[in-house]
Amino acid sequence: MWTGFAVFVLVAIAIDLLVMEKQGAHKVTTKEALVWSLIWFSLAFVFVALLWWYLDGSQGRATANEVSMQFITGYLVEKSLSVDNIFVFLMIFTYFAIPAEFQKRALIIGIVGAIILRAILILVGAWLLAQFHWILYVFGAFLVLTGLKMWFAAGQEPDIESNPALKVLRKYMKITTEFNGEKMTKMINGVKHFTPIFVVLILIGVTDIIFAVDSIPAIFAITNDPFIVLTANIFAILGLRALYFLLADLADRFHLLAYGLALVLVFIGTKMLLLDVYKIPIGIALGVTAAIIAISMFASLWTTRKTAEK
Questions:
Q1: pTM for the full model?
Q2: What does the pLDDT look like over 26-79, one tens digit per residue?
Q3: Are 280 and 102 in contact (CB under 8 A)?
Q4: Contact 255/118 with Cβ under 8 angstroms?
Q5: How far is CA 193 from CA 42, 99, 160, 164, 170, in A?
Q6: Phi, psi at residue 185, to the nearest 5°?
Q7: Which of 240, 288, 250, 283 is closest to 268 using CA atoms?
Q8: Which residues in the chain come in under a pLDDT of 50?
């Protein structure tokens, strides 16, 4: 299964890169983003269907149902938390005035880096949990605190100008505000300068590290199986680029989603803290998570419509 999934990821990335090269630099339309979002979403459920079929034949119906439910719950959690990434990516692109036609390449490079990073962190996390059971409580407390922090910080835009990574880049590298197509460097008076594309790639990488610290413990609260944790994470990441272009113009309409994500983190953190007292069934966890996200999205659309009417 590990080998098959690794081959699938490499083929998917290769196809994505080939399609990108064939299309060239262009602005991704809402229709194109919707089609790709549906493709990635469908592939995730094709994968879990095949996983269920394999486990049903080899380990029984009960195991197949349990593991499949874990994947779907983990995928939903990771997909939901990735929405927060998208809104931060949008702010970064807007801050550096990255043309829409250049954003696609920057995102796919960032996604490849995110996949490698997540794989390393997940394998390390799985090893730590296997060695030290008490780390579950650390993860749980961290998620609860992160959720509370997210709740009180909701609605506040991050100050990109004070970002430590940006300060370091400006201090030690020559950075220009001029673009050189999709290239990351540009020669100015015989001196190599780094373009805003390069700076954005670094900031996207730093942002993903920060969000990975939240999302990886969240899915470990659902399952300790490293294969399910990794596959759910990577499927969520693979659809991140398409989801970005789909939601970029709707960011303001989902202004309450951050509160919903905060509640999801608090709920999952609490589930992890209660693991040795009461194990919340995976079906209930999936239902609560889906309900919180759906309510926050519908509430966002409803309040936005009411404001527009006024």
A1: 0.76
A2: 667 778 888 888 888 898 999 999 999 999 988 888 999 999 999 998 888 888
A3: no
A4: no
A5: 42, 19, 21, 20, 11
A6: -130, 160
A7: 288
A8: none
User: What is the 3-class SS of 51-110, one letter each residue?
Assistant: HHHHHHHHCCHHHHHHHHHHHHHHHHHHHHHHHHHHHHHHHHHHHCCCCHHHHHHHHHHH
pLDDT at 206: 78
Let me know if 15 is exposed, middle or buried by CB neighbors in 10 A (0-12, 13-18, 19+).
exposed
Q: Is 159 helix (H, G, I), strand (E, B) or coil?
A: coil
Provide the sign of the torsion angle of the four alpha carbons 147, 270, 74, 130, taken in this order: positive
**Beta bridge partner(s), residue 27:** none
Two tokens, residue 32: 């194109």
Q: Using the Cα atoms of residue 247, residue 251, residue 256 and residue 262 in order, give the sign of their dihedral.
A: positive
- DSSP bridge partners of 193: 186
